[in-house]
Amino acid sequence: MRALKSGSWPFKRKHISLDGGTCRPNLKQLPFLGAVCTIMLFIVYRTTNYQYEQTEMESRLFPFYSSQEYDETSSSLLPRGIINTGADYKLKPLWSSSSSKSKAEIPGEQNLLAIPVGIKQKHNVDTIVRKFLSEKFTVILFHYDGNVDGWWDFEWCKDAVHVVGLNQTKWWFAKRFLHPSVVNPYNYIFLWDEDLGVEYFDPGRYLDIVRSEGLEISQPALDPNSTGIHHRITIRQRTKRFHRRVYETRGSYKCSEYSDGPPCSGFVEGMAPVFSKSAWRCAWHLIQNDLVHGWGMDMKLGYCAQGERSKKVGVVDSEYLVHQSIQTLGGQSDQDSNSKESVKKHVIDVRSEIRRQSTNELLIFEDRWDKAAKEDRNWVDPYRNSPKQKRKKIHRKIKRAL
């Protein structure tokens, strides 16, 4: 057997070609392959660009449905065009008639009034509702005491929407029954307490001021003689039409010309807030699913102001309220009880328990905010350099120590 020569191979090399010949490419096919690749890249580009344009259009037309939500709920189950984002609280009759058709469409701007109510405040709520019905507001009542039958003697009651949830708060109701997609037709949402005097308030004039001044979040000022005033910024300034800030040198919060955050500026309280639908879309997400009292949320509402809170949040002075500070939720349940002392003791115990739970929820909310702000690396706090931030942290530490 002869030794193999260096660099030799016992088998002959064969060049297998693409066309049955050698490995050398057929130069005649190169232009064709290049054309095919170019066409495929063009198709991919056009398809991607079309999908992007469709997504942008959907985000403008259907602002409450993100692409992720649409994909999860409908892309593989429902045809795209079947989704209708328009909804409202208008009562729809089970049958058609000439009278119902005449009431079906109300021309002009649509606005919403939502109030948690109990039967003890029946007549005060009636006064409030009549003011708003004169401006063609839609009304929804949240019955926290379970008593709906006691309201039917009011003529307007049959046109209102009634929701019952025993011993639930305003924020509990709002989270579950004022979803942004449902309130979308309403330009402004009034989420008020029931113990407000409206003798000096007119909804139409109020909205004229809010629109002209570009206020996304607002509230009527409180008469100085009101009870239950917690923040000076909410007190009516007699010589002004509206105001956005307050100066105060007394109390735990010092409001100076350098104070650009709540409760000195960009702040409304939770008793009578008014939201544009854009601001409510944000505020609704701010309401916690598992917390019911909403303490601390008013300090964060400025983040939902659709712009600089010191300009987009304000208090209207010319249309103001009288806060009566009547605590009925969780209060006396039976006025005709034979044992007045036992009822009095029960009321005090319940109110103390409510305050304890509210304080605990405030701490939970603040911790959640701090944690979320720290962990979300893509979120930038527009007010992180505010001089109020350090003061608020000190105040929070002192409060927890107590």
TrEMBL record:
Basic residues composition-biased segments: 387-402
Q: Where are the stretches annotated Disordered?
A: 380-402
Q: Which domain of life is it from?
A: Eukaryota
Q: What InterPro entries does UniProt report for this protein, alphabetically?
A: DUF707
Q: What is this protein called?
A: Lysine ketoglutarate reductase trans-splicing related 1
